[in-house]
Amino acid sequence: MMIEDLLDLSRLQAGGRRLQTAACSVHEMVQAAVAQVEKAALAGDVEIRVNLREDLPPVNADSARLTQVLNNIIENAVKFTPAGDMVEVTAHDGGSFLQIQVSDTGLGMTPAVLPHIFDRFFQAHASESEQAGFGLGLAISREIVELHGGRIWAESDAGRGSTFYFTVPFYS
After folding, report:
1. Buried b / exposed e across 62-82, counting CB within 10 Å, b at 16+?
2. Following DSSP, what letter does each residue of 52-104 receive, concatenated?
3. Measured distance CA(38)–CA(23) in Å, rounded
4. Residue 129's pLDDT band (boundaries 50, 70, 90)?
5. What does the alpha-carbon distance between residue 172 and residue 163 come to, in Å, rounded to a whole number?
6. Which of 121, 126, 147, 151 could bridge to 132 as Cys pair (CB 3.0-4.6 Å)?
7. Which of 89, 80, 98, 92 is CA-nearest to residue 32?
8. Residue 38 neighbours by CB distance under 10 Å
9. What gap in Å lies between CA 57 and CA 98, rounded to an integer?
10. Where are the domains of the chain?
11. Mean pLDDT of all residues in the chain?
């Protein structure tokens, strides 16, 4: 898995991966990502709440790649959210783009950590998780979002949780 992620990240950064964009339903991509993380959420007693308006227009995206971004972010949120707490997925109209956000009530991060979370191999809480990854998921997510012409960022308070945001253009 780590080798595949490293190769994927290298190809994305070198421009060796092209997006297959089309009109995509945000609802379908979020549902697919949540389905991939659902077992871990149930095992950790973490609720995933999806709060999307029914009338969201389609986005111009590579569905598989954007689902990968959602999966990475939701999986991290579930991993670092205590039992009995919640992860929420919402989306907001930002004019020519859709802003998707994933909020958790987990460990949160200090201001010193935030500038590095999208760096390759960086792990904010590696020692605090039994399921520590390789520190590649958010770096891959950043590359994918930027290939879509969007941006990705996070806000967090240590001990109070984190919110990850990313934008993707609407289909026109």
Report:
1. bbebbbbbbbbbbbbbbbbbe
2. --TTPPPEEE-HHHHHHHHHHHHHHHHHTSPTT-EEEEEEEE-SSEEEEEEEE
3. 26
4. very low
5. 28
6. 126
7. 89
8. 13
9. 9
10. 2-169
11. 87
Q: Tokens 């991993």 map to which residue? A: 79
Structure tokens at 8: 């994927």
Quick check: 130 pLDDT over 70? no
Q: What homologous superfamily does CATH list for 2-169?
A: Histidine kinase-like ATPase, C-terminal domain (3.30.565.10)
164 CA to centre of own chain: 7
Find tokens 């984190």 and name the residue: 162
The residues, any chain, with a CB within 8 Å of residue 7's CB and separated by 6 or more, are none
How far CA 132 is from CA of 73, 76, 163, in Å, comes to: 14, 9, 19
Place 137 in a pLDDT band, splitting at 50, 70 and 90: confident
pLDDT for residue 99 is more than 80: yes
**C-alpha angle with apex 9: 144 to 65, nearest 5 degrees?**
35
Q: Return the DSSP state at 22.
A: E
State residue 90's pLDDT score: 98
pLDDT for the residue 138: 92
Q: What is the pLDDT of residues 25-73, one digit of tens each?
A: 999 999 999 999 999 999 999 999 999 999 999 999 999 999 999 999 9
Tokens encoding 144:
């994918």
